[in-house]
């Protein structure tokens, strides 16, 4: 799908898809249907033949749309869960570092606060454009370097250090999954199949031999629902892309509830 669609607000995008589908149905009824009737003609069994073709096509096309919708939704939920797990793991890491002696504690906590601020105000706006900054990766590596450089002197410190490193790995894994959500999308070849299938679906409905007024009403209802399904798939396709992308709510909550209080007074 064209990238500009992901920058359109949901309400406007839903209207565009619905109107485009209904417009395609009207075009099929007023232009395509008369042309096809001249080319292939009509007969007493014409509707039965169209219904036969529609039933087979509808089965496979409906299956394709259903699988794509479920896949897009599951991918969106995975990215949402990764954001939550990233914030949870980082919050746990931020708390566990309190057991470190100074100055290691203050340095590590300052680096984590810097990471969260960078993610909220620098990296997330770039995610909306479908891109990733290197600054987050560099800051995450710097945090690990600081944590790994701590040398425990007692058995208690060794236990705490192992727990801190484990929490960091959980944070890093969740972060990588969140970044994967920036680039994950439905392949272009599948979009090609979906759009061609939508055109064929509208064509088959338009070919039915029905009086024009009920035909337009019934066809518009079918086209409207098709437009809604395509809108849902597009909205869920890129979980972090555009105005409708997922928000960094868990990270914002982590900053407001735990980190902001440790910021030095300006």
Verbal overview:
The chain has 266 residues and is mainly α. The chain has one domain (3-261). It contains eight helices and no strands. The chain has helices at residues 10-40, 46-96, 104-127, 134-148, 155-183, 188-207, 212-237, 249-259. Helix 3 runs antiparallel to helix 4, helix 3 (104-127) runs antiparallel to helix 8 (249-259) and helix 6 packs antiparallel against helix 7. The chain is elongated. The mean pLDDT is 88.
Short description:
The protein is elongated. It has 266 residues and is mostly helical. It contains 8 helices and no strands.
Task: Please render the helix and strand layout as text.
Elements: H1 10-40, H2 46-96, H3 104-127, H4 134-148, H5 155-183, H6 188-207, H7 212-237, H8 249-259
List keywords for this structure.
266 residues; mainly alpha; elongated
Give the overall silhouette. Answer: elongated
Total helical segments:
8
What do the pLDDT scores average to?
A: 88
How far the N terminus sits from the C terminus, by CA atoms, comes to 46 Å
How many E-type strands?
A: 0
Strand coverage percent: under 5%
């Amino acid at each position: 799908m064209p990238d500009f669609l992901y920058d359109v607000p949901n309400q406007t995008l839903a209207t565009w898809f619905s109107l485009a589908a209904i417009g395609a149905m009207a075009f099929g009824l007023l232009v395509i249907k008369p042309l096809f009737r001249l080319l292939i003609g009509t007969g007493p069994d014409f509707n039965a033949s169209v219904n036969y073709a529609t039933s087979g096509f509808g089965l496979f096309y409906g299956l394709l749309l259903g699988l794509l919708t479920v896949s897009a939704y599951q991918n969106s939920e995975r990215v949402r869960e990764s954001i939550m797990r990233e914030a949870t793991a980082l919050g746990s890491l931020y708390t566990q570092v309190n057991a470190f002696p100074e100055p290691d504690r203050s340095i590590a906590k300052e680096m984590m606060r810097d990471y969260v601020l960078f993610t909220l105000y620098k990296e997330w706006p770039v995610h909306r454009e479908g891109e990733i900054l290197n600054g987050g990766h560099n800051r995450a590596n710097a945090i690990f370097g600081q944590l790994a450089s701590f040398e425990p002197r007692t058995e208690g410190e060794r236990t705490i250090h192992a727990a801190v490193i484990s929490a960091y790995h959980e944070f890093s894994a969740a972060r990588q999954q969140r970044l994967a959500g920036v680039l994950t999308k439905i392949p272009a070849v599948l979009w090609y199949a979906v759009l061609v299938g939508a055109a064929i679906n509208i064509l088959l409905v338009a070919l039915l031999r029905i009086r024009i007024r009920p035909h337009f009403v019934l066809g518009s209802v079918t086209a409207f629902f098709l437009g809604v399904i395509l809108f849902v798939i597009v909205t869920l396709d890129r979980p972090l892309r555009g105005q409708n992308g997922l928000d960094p709510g868990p990270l914002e909550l982590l900053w407001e509830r735990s980190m902001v209080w440790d910021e030095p007074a300006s």
